[in-house]
């Protein structure tokens, strides 16, 4: 390397300082000049190497700050920004978070009384009192994924929750793999396709629903096809999905203790005995074209005699037959016009269960960050058992009959609080009313209504 440089420099020097016939240049002067030129060339080369290293470090820092999220499963992480995003060649990592705190004011406990006012059920059973509450949680999410050039990928997502009560919970914990734009398999804790979207629902407490012990026996409730959707506290799920042109296909399977769907494991007046885990199978087919999406699904437990109770003859009575059907339609122009776009949802759901049939229909519309929604629910309870007044080892069977629940809810988003595009505040309110006939009895008319309001602070990071 140095010999080559020396030869080039020598040639350059000869060209610049040519010998003439009448002048002589000493060899020592030429050698001194050559040494000086060589030293300057070495210094220039060192400065060029240093500049190249600085450019490489700057490029690396820019790549980290602009790295993609690295998770094709956008159902739970959309809207989050990156605290840390890195790629070590074996996969990318994304760290993000979600702060959500609420200030609530409600008339009484969220669920609406139906059979709970019967003999044997006191006021303590349904919490006949006003509720003022501050609640919330902080979510810290970590997603990891590796994707190959041929479209194959695998990854995970974990989202622990720190609640204001001091408890630690978990939102998602899922592992997935598949081929980009072809198919995907995931297993763990997550939520499958939403068949009864409430959209921007800030405070829709109404009367609960039958997912993860939110259904309390003796109260009216709204069926929303959530039993086999996932995020169970008592089991796990697996999901296979595929996309083909405008069509989306999904089959979700949830394995869990089915009696835990009901609060305190009570259903139709009886304490349930769990014999074996249920398996919910939930196929979904959705079609999307431009701004319109239509989806249909079935949500069914395929295991019989999973849970129930012993009747007066000591014979086990199965209560685990539950099959739901749902249809939802969505019209969304918000993505084309963020300022004046509209999102409209229309959903229906029907449950065929042991001694019970339920129907729900709901709609909501979102425009310019304001949402208004309505839900109608019809419960047809064919059998409900209460303890005999003379013999507490015996039960009397009642016919609760049919009752209807009407719920109206609204919310409004205040964006960019303090000029921060990741800090929002939501104002929400709801009102629910129940009426019915049959053996259902109300203590007085005030038990027909529930209402509440909420201020929610939402901060994504």
Summary?
12% of the residues lie in helices and 48% in strands.
Descriptive keywords:
461 residues; mainly beta; 16-stranded antiparallel beta barrel; 26 strands; 12% helix; disordered N terminus
Structural summary, described in words:
The protein has 461 residues and is mainly β. Helices cover 12% and strands 48% of the residues. The protein contains two helices and 26 strands. The protein has helices spanning 2-16, 27-65, and strands at 84-87, 92-106, 112-113, 131-147, 152-163, 168-179, 183-189, 219-220, 235-244, 247-256, 266-267, 270-271, 273-274, 278-289, 292-301, 307-310, 316-318, 322-332, 342-353, 356-367, 370-381, 384-387, 395-398, 401-414, 423-436, 449-460. The strands form five sheets. Strands 2-4-5-6-7-9-10-14-15-18-19-20-21-24-25-26 form a 16-stranded antiparallel barrel. Strand 5 and strand 6 (168-179) form a beta hairpin. The radius of gyration is 33 Å and the shape is elongated. 28% of the residues are buried. The model is unreliable at 1-25, 57-78 and 118-126 (pLDDT under 50).
């Amino acid at each position: 390397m140095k010999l080559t440089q020396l030869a080039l420099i020598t040639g350059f020097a000869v060209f610049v300082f040519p010998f003439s016939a009448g002048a002589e240049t000493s060899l020592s002067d030429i050698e001194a000049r050559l040494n000086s030129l060589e030293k300057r060339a070495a210094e220039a080369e060192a400065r060029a190497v240093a500049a190249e290293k600085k450019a490489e470090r700057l490029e690396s820092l820019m790549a980290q700050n602009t790295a993609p999220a690295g998770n094709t499963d956008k159902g739970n992480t959309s809207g989050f920004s990156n605290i840390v995003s890195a790629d070590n060649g074996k996969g990318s990592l994304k760290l993000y978070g979600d702060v959500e705190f609420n200030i609530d004011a409600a008339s009484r406990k969220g669920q609406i009384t139906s059979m709970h006012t019967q003999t044997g059920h006191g006021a303590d059973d349904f919490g006949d009192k006003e509720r003022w509450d501050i609640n919330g949680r902080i979510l810290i999410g970590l997603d990891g994924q590796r994707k190959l050039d041929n479209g194959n990928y695998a990854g995970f997502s974990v989202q622990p929750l720190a609640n204001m009560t001091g408890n630690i919970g978990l939102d998602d914990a899922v592992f997935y793999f598949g081929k980009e734009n072809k198919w995907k398999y995931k297993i763990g804790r997550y939520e499958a396709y939403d068949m009864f979207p409430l959209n921007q629902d800030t405070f829709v407490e109404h009367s609960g629903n039958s997912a993860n012990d939110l259904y309390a026996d003796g109260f009216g409730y709204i069926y929303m096809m959530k039993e086999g959707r996932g995020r169970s506290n008592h089991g796990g799920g697996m999901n296979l999905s595929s996309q083909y042109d405008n069509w989306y296909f999904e089959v979700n399977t949830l394995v869990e203790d089915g009696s835990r769907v009901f609060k305190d494991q009570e259903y139709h007046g009886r304490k349930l005995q769990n014999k074996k885990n249920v398996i919910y199978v939930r196929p979904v087919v959705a079609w999307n074209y431009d701004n319109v999406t239509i989806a249909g699904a079935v949500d069914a437990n395929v295991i019989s005699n999973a849970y129930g109770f012993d009747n007066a003859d000591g014979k086990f009575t199965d209560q685990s037959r539950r099959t739901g059907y749902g249809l939802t339609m969505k019209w969304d122009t918000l993505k084309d016009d963020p300022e004046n776009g509209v999102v409209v949802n229309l959903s229906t759901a029907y449950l065929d269960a042991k001694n019970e049939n339920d129907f729900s229909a709901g709609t909501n519309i979102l425009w310019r960050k304001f949402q208004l929604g309505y839900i109608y629910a019809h419960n047809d309870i064919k059998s409900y058992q209460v303890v005999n007044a003379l013999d507490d080892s015996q039960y009397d069977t009642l016919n609760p009959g049919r009752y209807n629940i009407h719920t109206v809810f609204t919310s409004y988003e205040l964006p960019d609080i303090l000029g921060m595009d990741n800090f929002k505040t939501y104002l929400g309110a709801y009102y629910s009313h129940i009426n019915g006939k049959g053996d259902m009895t109300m203590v007085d008319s005030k038990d027909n209504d529930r209402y509440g309001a909420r201020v929610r602070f939402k901060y994504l990071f």
